[in-house]
Structures are given as structure tokens and as C-alpha cells.
Amino acid sequence: MRIAIAGAGAVGRSIAQELVSDGHQVMLIERDRAHFDPNSVEQAEWVQADACELSSLEDAGMQLCDVVIAATGDDKVNLVVSLLAKTEFAVRRVVARVNDPTNEWLFTESWGVDVAVSTPRLLAAMVEESVTIGDVVRLLTLRQGQANLVEITLDESTPFAGRAVSELTLPRDAALVTILRGGRVIVPQPDDTLEGGDELLFVTTAAVEQDIKKALGY
């Protein structure tokens, strides 16, 4: 894919390095000369421009991008970049970084955002996920609240140990997508059995998250 990243600070450069390593074409857009360092990600295309200016984005070729990532440290800039990418350039997928959790409500489809990533929220979720047994922990919001990736860890004495995945009575809008067991990642099949200590990942709507918990006896 061709991916544009607005903001070449530490976060933007790190994302670019990962994407380049995975074989994607990456363009970094940075206004601040202090952050403009093509040697830091040599495989990427670098553009020194204001990502909030329509003409600059057009000159950079944003209309050719499959994905735009608004990764600056300023939420206002990230919202403007997202809106321009979606409305002016019809970019298929727009991902935006949320710096201040109190602004999270703004990062919706109305502003052109398909996926909002809040670092504070993700860190909090990771902490909860590592210490919580039997509770639903929301790891990621997908499609602006239409679905969530959630995790629940089975305790060692779970009555579901040894029972097949097909025996789970899950709510309609929930799907078990992965079982994490020790160092293994298991794509669950109907005949696979559950074990105490399993971390179960579901894609679900917010409305039925607690129903998943009930289905697992919590």
C-alpha cells in the first residue's frame, strides 16, 4: 500500500519504519524543519510541507494514497488532516492519533477518522488486560464504535476448561477470533477446547460486551 504519515516526530518515524519494513510505500509529511530528517527513515519519501494545507497535500500526491495516518502531537492538526484526506482526496482508510483523551469524542467519521488510536487508553487497557481475570477489557475500538476488540481471561478454575469452543453460547453480535495460550496464538475451530488461563479475544459490539462475560460464567 501507499501510506502517507502526517508528522515525522518520534511516533511518525517509528510507524514509518515499521511500515517500510513490511514492504509498504511510505511518505512522511513534516512542516517543522527540526523534525525533517530523511536519514532517519531512508526508505521513505519525505515531504516538507504543512499537512493542513490543501495545496501542499495535493502536490505531495495524497490522492494516490491508500491510507493516511495523522500522527502529529497536536489533536487539532490530526483532525484537519483526517478531514482533508477523507473529503478532499477520498482516502479509503484514515487513522488518527489522539493525544488528549478528552478529545477522543471528536475523532469520528464526521471528521473523516476511520480508526482513532489513543495511547493513554491503549496503555490503560494493556495494564488491565495483564492483571484482570474474568472481566471484559476493551483493547481497541473499530469503525468508530461499531465494533470493539475485547479480551477476557479465564481463571484456572473455569468450568469451561475442557469444553469445546462450539459449546459457547455467545450473543449474536460477538465472535471469538483468537485464543492466546502461553506463547501460542490459536485461531479457534469449533472442536478446539478451552483451558484455564486462556486469554480470549472477541470482536463485538459494546451492547453485548457484558453478555460475553455472562456466557463465560462471570
Summarize the structure.
This protein is α/β, with parallel strands linked by helices. The protein has helices at 10-21, 54-60, 75-87, 119-131, 209-215; strands at 2-6, 25-30, 45-48, 67-70, 93-98, 115-118, 137-142, 147-153, 174-181, 184-186, 199-204. It comes from Lentzea flava.
Keyword list:
five-stranded antiparallel beta sheet, 218 residues, six-stranded parallel beta sheet, single chain, elongated, alpha/beta, 27% strand, 11 strands
Write a structural description.
The chain is α/β, with parallel strands linked by helices. It has 5 helices and 11 strands; from the N terminus they run βαββαβαββαβββββα. The chain has helices at 10-21, 54-60, 75-87, 119-131, 209-215; strands at 2-6, 25-30, 45-48, 67-70, 93-98, 115-118, 137-142, 147-153, 174-181, 184-186, 199-204. The longest helix is centred in the middle third of the chain and has 13 residues, at 75-87. It is elongated.
Tell me about the largest β-sheet.
Answer: 6 strands, parallel
| pLDDT < 50 stretches | none
Q: How far apart are the first and last residues' alpha carbons, in Å?
A: 42 Å
Q: Which strands sit side by side, in order, in the main sheet?
A: 3-2-1-4-5-6
Helix content: 10-25%
